[in-house]
Amino acid sequence: MGKVYLIGAGPGDVGLITVKGLDCVKTADVVVYDYLASPRLLAYAREDAEIIYVGKKGGDHTLSQDGINALLVEKAKAGKTVARLKGGDPFIFGRGGEEAEVLKEQGQAFEIVPGVTSAIAAPAYAGIPLTHRKHTATVAFVTGHEDPTKDESNIDWAKISTGIGTIVFLMGIKNLPMITKRLMDNGRAPQTPVALVRWGTTPGQETVTGTLETIVDIAQKAKIKPPAVIVVGEVVDLRPVLNWFETKPLFGQKILVTRSRKQASALVEKLADLGADCVETPTIELVPPKDPKPLEDAVDNIAAYDWVVLTSVNGVDYFFDCLFSKGKDARALANAKVAAIGPATSAKLREYGLVTDIVPKTYRAESVVEAFLQEDMKDKKVLLPRAAQARPILPVELKKMGALVDEVPAYETVQASQDQAQVLWERLESGEITMTTFTSSSTVSNFVALFDKEKLLKVMEGVKTASIGPITSDTARDLGLKVDMEAEAYTIDGLVQAILDGVGK
């Protein structure tokens, strides 16, 4: 028998899903998700999981509610474990109760995994506490969009208008004029503070405030559209003091991350934590080398090397993948010394049980060469597993010192799929993207190769560019791009700091 987990995916910030909810996503055979469930959660699904979108946006329904119910039953009857991701909490205006009823009727096992509802999360991210000892001890959650097929409203406007301190309306932006009128007609003071929080908890969050008598005009001028929550009550006046999310240093910045999807997460997490809205569009992908034999031969003969030099985190992973495939581990390097190009590469080597003998002062090939000047390299055998078509300076200079260098490709960088190129171009052309990040020369060259170069350079005049270091910057300039920010330390942390410094100017 299959099983369906009705999961509250949270209000938008991917970090607000519960531990249990995320565990369900990681183990599910099928993931069925809504319009308001963060697509970033799908990255946690198994690679072989079936992913099905059933979002409902305004009048555009990918699948009717009856169709969704039937789909859940069908997958459960097929013996599948289903993660049904619903925005916010499944039992707060999420129709989770209806889906659970159908599963029960059909004899299918299910569990409810509560989630953080936007009714509390969006106001919290806007700096609005729904209850406060000095203001109110009562709060109500009300749908702003009742079922239109009902004969009459089951909202008792007379009682909630004056009987509740804070009222939160969900899905009510289209009905905002009616909501404010009903509240005032039933005794709520026209001067009562009101806040509208759109896309709460996400980097695209937008908040406007007013009063019951002014908020409709304010919302129209600000062009506030769904999804948004409406908060009515004196607690809205606390926003100027408690607003914490929209004051983050990178809030309002929409930053393009061109790094490979496998590597992008660290940069995206750091930028998002500072308030940025990250657009992940990898321009490169990492793949094994076309001819794996040189690396395999080197690993077979690993005991003959005096030095193994790793120049990137990727090189470390691909090298050890080959080592493990040969039935070996770090002990195979017992006779060799190890050099790393920088602290990130050195830290990755530690994960495999190796402490590096050389870590240069700066994170580029020239610094590695300088570090080796302190070593006697005459007739020393050096293995250099790294990206195909990497800069030649390191093997050339080591050979000048008398070393016997075997440079073998551990992986290759190739241009990523162009499937997203058109969507990305539209976002660049519209001015939506405010900044682009480049973490290697290959990310730059492949980014430029995606588009008509002349048109791209014109569009990029209005986009800030952040580079991880001078080599990447040189590539960007050679291709006609300006570089606004360059990391002093050629690491992800260094890049993030350069962006913070650049935005602060």
Automatic annotation (TrEMBL):
Catalytic activity, EC: 2.1.1.107
Keywords: Cobalamin biosynthesis, Methyltransferase, Porphyrin biosynthesis, S-adenosyl-L-methionine, Transferase
Pathway terms, separated by semicolons: Cofactor biosynthesis; adenosylcobalamin biosynthesis; precorrin-2 from uroporphyrinogen III: step 1/1; Porphyrin-containing compound metabolism; siroheme biosynthesis; precorrin-2 from uroporphyrinogen III: step 1/1
A single MF term (Gene Ontology): uroporphyrin-III C-methyltransferase activity
Domain Tetrapyrrole methylase: 3-215
GO BP terms, alphabetized: cobalamin biosynthetic process; methylation; siroheme biosynthetic process
Boundaries of every Tetrapyrrole biosynthesis uroporphyrinogen III synthase domain copy: 266-497
Family to which the UniProt record says this protein belongs: Belongs to the precorrin methyltransferase family.
NCBIfam families: cobA_cysG_Cterm, PRK06136.1
Protein's name in the database: uroporphyrinogen-III C-methyltransferase
Species per Swiss-Prot/TrEMBL record: Desulfatibacillum aliphaticivorans
Phylogenetic classification of the source organism: Bacteria, Pseudomonadati, Thermodesulfobacteriota, Desulfobacteria, Desulfobacterales
